[in-house]
Specification:
This protein is an alpha+beta fold. The protein is 56% helix and 8% strand. The strands form three sheets. Strands 3-4-5-8-7 form a five-stranded antiparallel sheet, with no helix packed on it. Strands 6-9-10 form a three-stranded antiparallel sheet.
Length: 900
């Protein structure tokens, strides 16, 4: 016999496939066998049809295509013999699913077999219908299945109940037809029929509220069956580890949970049996633990009594002591749900939960840590925090990040004492300062600034911590900031608290600490920049050490990092030549408003999330489906967050020097000379600052009298974007609302003219510090500009302004194609700062002709609410298609004519 003919037995084909040494040999065997089966199908071979289909099913399980044999399944199902029908239905379930159109042809055969006199053929039909039933088949065959639920044969009842579950899931509207037959199945004695009946009732309760109300009447019957099951004698057929049919018990507990949820009467009916199950079930076997877990879930899900809930939580407490990691994990999950129901009962197991935080399994550690976070209250926050910090010292590096984050959240949320808050945060920074987020040490600085009585204690504590934990980056930053601010308190031992260990620190010691932070190999740019600022402040706090500090600062003049090089040059000039303004520049920071800073952090986080969500839609690969000419309001456009032009708020306690520096750096803030209690900066000091920053216009006398060394040094520095000079850092450690922030942002505001893609634009115009720009009072005119130009595209802006609306400006944008390809689906978008309102009119077209043979025009209306104080700034984004390929270009426009 041909080894690859339709008469080949299944075992021979399997033997040939397993004998293949390579995948290529296996594919060759399968190809030959499939060819033989196709030949038999075309010849309508009836003798070996069942054998061919069996081989097709095996080939299908190997992953090869077998669609050509689908009709053979239907032919076998239509045959009269049971062996052929068995292979046909098996092939139907394996080779087809409910999405196949061929399945419509089998509905009639299924209906005939469901009414067959042979119970085994009826079972085959029910099994197939329960596996591949579609919505159309469910509607057609539901009456037959409903009738079979009342059959006398237990096997037929069981399969009909399982088939009914499939029908209800496909067509929930048919649930009402199965309510009465399902309720009748709850009285069955046969465990197989009973468990399928309970599953059917559970599915009905999920599908219909009406069915739930109807079946809830049978709660007592289900409780009675469960009680009989608990007290039944030993039965080898259903016994598992000494427990009678745990699968049936679990299904019944789930159904009781649905009956008792939100219904006090049903819950009261099942309280006794649940207590009996919880007390009598053995927990030394896995089957017993499964029943206990489901019993606890039922108790927590119904309207149970407080005593029963305590019993359930105690069971979970025993689970936490189990050696099996799976049992402990599910117990932690259930306890997290139980916290909202009975917190006091869960609190009794707090010690065991804390031990789980130290578990070797990472998933159990994380889940236990989340549970501990839910258990924290004002009464237990201190002992819990102490336990967690002690474990932080010995925890694995992989777990330190999560543990640190939770500890910081607990301390921030529940601390009412600033001293305790400061101590705990210093402990965290000392143990895991490299794992904390920036917001944590930012918050600590804000809290320190709001506790004047603790300034001396805090700076001394940080000095001590820095001696032993100098590798922790966040601790070093906070310590450097505090030493720079309160270095005099450190040296003079001011504000010593009761019980504090005395210590003596000299001015030289304080400088050595900051110098080591500046030169340490692990310090990043932020730490080094903060160290330079601290040294500048200490030069004012410690006048006798000013020369030594200057020598340390000068050493950074050759730093490869431009930020540090620039600060070194500026600070050296301040120390050496501007002693008359140094004390005003480096005065102590005012108190930072905690509520305002918290609001800024939340807003920044929302902007970041919004930007991440929208960034996916701005990539050329994903396409842009935004309609052209849609006006974008400033707060809703993610590009505005990139501009970072919204730092308009300044604390009321800021000095006039801080306000002047903020205005000079582009914040657009004005000072009120009539405010009492604020010292005004002398005019000569202002002129010196103007020359120091190399921006603005000063009198010729002042320019001649000022040294040229600083101006020359600053002019040699690379330029930055004007928009970058407006982008103010909102970090509390380098806040732009204080004199220290002004120094921290010197590199962003001292550059000369900026080179952008739209052409040169001097910083002085964007910052609007010069008021000598001539404008026409009656009908001002502005020259047209090339707003944007690339190799492919050019944008011209022309301006028109009405004298009755000095804040409003009409901009006519003209787009020209510089390439030899037609641009289609042309879209122009723009983003402006929050103090500017922008309205975009629809564009004249969305097709841009080639090589400048035509153009697209679009009108923009811009309203500057701070006209005369802040200049116009804009970012643009242009999207278009070239040969069905999407292209995205974007840029920054900063060469607007003065006076806009």
């Amino acid at each position: 016999m041909n080894p690859f003919s339709s008469g080949t037995r299944l075992r021979d084909m399997i033997r040939a496939i397993r004998a293949s040494k390579t995948a290529a040999e296996e594919r060759a065997v399968v190809r030959k066998e499939c060819a033989a089966i196709r030949a038999a199908v075309s010849e309508n071979d009836q003798d070996y049809r069942h054998r061919n289909l069996a081989k097709l099913m095996f080939i299908h399980m190997l992953g090869y295509p077998t669609h050509f044999g689908q009709m053979e399944c239907l032919k076998l199902i239509a045959s009269s013999g049971f062996p052929e029908k068995r292979i046909g239905y098996l092939g139907l379930m394996l080779l087809l699913d409910e999405r196949q159109e061929v399945l419509m042809l089998v509905t009639n055969s299924l209906k005939q077999d469901l009414n067959h006199s042979n119970q085994y053929i009826v079972g085959l039909a029910l099994c197939a219908l329960g596996n591949i039933c579609s919505a159309e088949m469910a509607r057609d065959l539901a009456p037959e299945v409903e009738r079979l639920l009342q059959s006398r044969d237990q096997n037929i009842k069981k399969k009909a109940a399982l088939c009914s579950i499939r029908i209800i899931r496909k067509v929930p509207d048919l649930a009402e037809n199965f309510m009465s037959p399902a309720a009748a199945l709850l009285k069955e004695k046969h465990h197989g029929v009973l468990i399928t009946g309970i599953q059917l009732c559970t599915e009905l309760c999920k599908a219909s509220a009406e069915a739930l109300d109807h079946l809830r009447k049978y709660t007592e019957g289900v409780v009675r069956v469960l009680k009989d099951l608990m007290s039944s004698p030993y039965s080898p057929e259903y016994d598992i580890a000494g427990i009678t049919d745990p699968f049936l018990q679990i299904r019944m507990l789930k159904l009781l949970r649905m009956f008792g949820h939100g219904d006090p009467d049903s819950s009261d009916c099942m309280n006794d049996i649940l207590a009996q199950v919880a007390a009598k079930t053995e927990s030394n076997k896995n089957a017993g633990n499964a029943i206990l877990y489901e019993c606890v879930a039922t108790i927590m899900g119904i309207e149970a009594t407080s005593g029963l809930r305590v019993l359930a939580i105690n069971i979970l407490g025993r689970f936490l002591s189990n050696r099996d990691n799976n049992i402990r994990y599910v117990a932690l999950n259930m306890l997290m749900k139980a916290v909202s129901v009975d917190t006091q009962a869960v609190q009794r197991h707090r010690a065991t939960i804390l031990e789980c935080v130290k578990d070797s399994d990472a998933s159990i550690r994380k889940r236990a840590l989340e549970l501990v976070f839910l258990l924290v209250s004002e009464n237990n926050v201190k002992p819990l925090t102490k336990e967690l910090i002690e474990y932080l010292e010995v925890s694995d590096p992989d777990f330190k990040g999560d543990l640190t984050d939770k500890i910081c959240s607990i301390v921030e949320t529940f601390s009412s004492d600033k001293l305790w808050f400061t101590d705990q945060m210093l402990k965290v920074l000392s143990e895991a300062g490299n794992y904390v987020k920036d917001e944590v040490w930012h918050t600590l600085i804000v809290v320190i600034s709001n506790a004047p009585d603790l300034h001396g204690y805090t700076v001394r504590s940080l000095y001590r911590a820095l001696q032993s934990s100098g590798e922790q980056e966040s601790l070093v930053r906070v310590a450097v900031w505090c030493i720079g601010e309160y270095g005099d308190l450190l040296v003079n031992s001011t504000g010593v608290l009761v019980g504090e260990e005395p210590m003596t620190v000299s001015e030289s010691d304080a400088i050595v600490v900051v110098e080591s932070a500046l030169k340490h190999h692990t310090s990043d740019v932020t730490t080094q920049a903060m160290s330079l600022i601290a040294l500048l402040k200490l030069s004012s706090r410690f006048p006798h050490c000013s020369q030594r500090i200057r020598e340390i600062v000068i050493q950074q003049k050759g730093n490869l990092i431009l930020e540090l090089q620039q600060r070194s040059i500026e600070f050296n000039s301040i120390i050496q030549k501007h002693e008359n303004i140094k004390s005003a520049l480096v005065e102590r920071m005012p108190v930072l408003d905690e509520a305002t800073y918290t609001g800024k952090r939340a807003g920044s986080a929302q902007a970041t999330v919004h930007l991440e969500k929208t960034s996916k839609t701005t990539r050329p690969a994903n396409g842009l489906n935004l309609p052209n000419g849609v006006a974008k309001s400033a707060p809703a456009t993610p590009l505005i967050d990139l501009l970072d032009l919204s730092s308009d708020d300044v604390p009321a306690s800021a000095s006039s020097t801080s306000d002047f520096l903020n205005d000079l750096l582009g914040g657009g803030l004005t000072t009120n000379p009539s405010v009492s209690g604020v010292n005004q900066v002398p005019t000569s000091g202002a002129d010196i600052l103007m020359d120091l920053l190399s921006i603005g216009t000063t009198s010729p006398q002042n320019n001649q009298s000022m040294p040229n060394v600083m101006s020359t040094t600053l002019d040699n520095l690379p330029s930055v974007s004007p928009l970058d000079s407006l982008s103010l850092n909102s970090s509390p450690a380098l806040s732009t609302q204080t004199s220290e922030a002004s120094l921290a942002n010197f590199p962003k505001g001292i550059a000369g003219p900026t080179k952008s893609m739209a052409g040169p634009a001097p910083v002085v115009d964007l910052l609007d510090v010069s008021s000598n720009t001539p404008t026409s009072a009656q009908n001002p005119t502005f020259p047209s500009i090339v707003a944007f130009q690339s190799n492919n595209l050019k944008i011209m802006f022309s301006f028109s302004k009405l004298p009755e609306k000095p804040q409003a400006m009409q901009i006519q944008a003209t787009f020209t194609n510089l390439s030899s390809n037609v641009y289609t689906d042309f879209i122009f978008q723009a983003a402006v700062p929050k103090f500017i309102q922008l309205h975009l009119d629809p564009a004249s077209s969305n097709v841009l002709p080639v090589s400048g043979n035509g153009s697209i025009r679009q009108s923009l209306t811009v309203t500057n609410s701070q006209h005369g104080q802040k200049a116009l700034a804009m970012r643009v984004r242009i999207a278009y298609k070239v040969n069905n390929q999407e292209v995205l270009e974007q840029g920054q426009i900063n060469n607007f004519p003065p006076g806009l």
